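sorry to bug you again but im stuck and you know this stuff better than me. what follows is a protein written twice so to speak, once as letters and once as structure tokens for the fold. mainly i need to know what kind of three dimensional shape the backbone takes. anything you notice is useful, everything is just below:
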Amino acid sequence: MAIQLTSEEKKLIEHAKKAVVRYNELRNSKGELATFYAFVLSDSGKIYDGACLESMGGGVCGERAAIGRMFTEETYSSKIKAIVIFCPVPKELEYAPTPCGRCRNVIWERGTESTSIICGQYIQRKGGWEFLPKMEKYAIKELYPNPFKDPWADFKG
């Protein structure tokens, strides 16, 4: 079954696909491998790109890298409207990888309950990168149904 996408989400996916190809061409020209990328659409309508920094001692996921860029260029009150994730895979997986626990927490804190998370896969082929047609879409509340909420938040001054 095809997922239902808003026009903004379609635009975000098209941006993400072009960026993945561009970034991977650059990485390959320097002898590096493809990586996991995330793209955030903020409530201002701007798009922010992020890449996984797995070799940076402890790592920073693509989602948090993109969210960090959003806060660098906007404000901490900005909200995540949607996020697209593309993961390189050796073969098509039954389900595209979803955000890790840390990223789910940050998306929850910096988004809304309806923030969309769209997950996709891509494979490097001889002629370039192929984006696999099957994608999943979730609201953050589906992936993170019982987030931590500060019980004292209403009592703090």
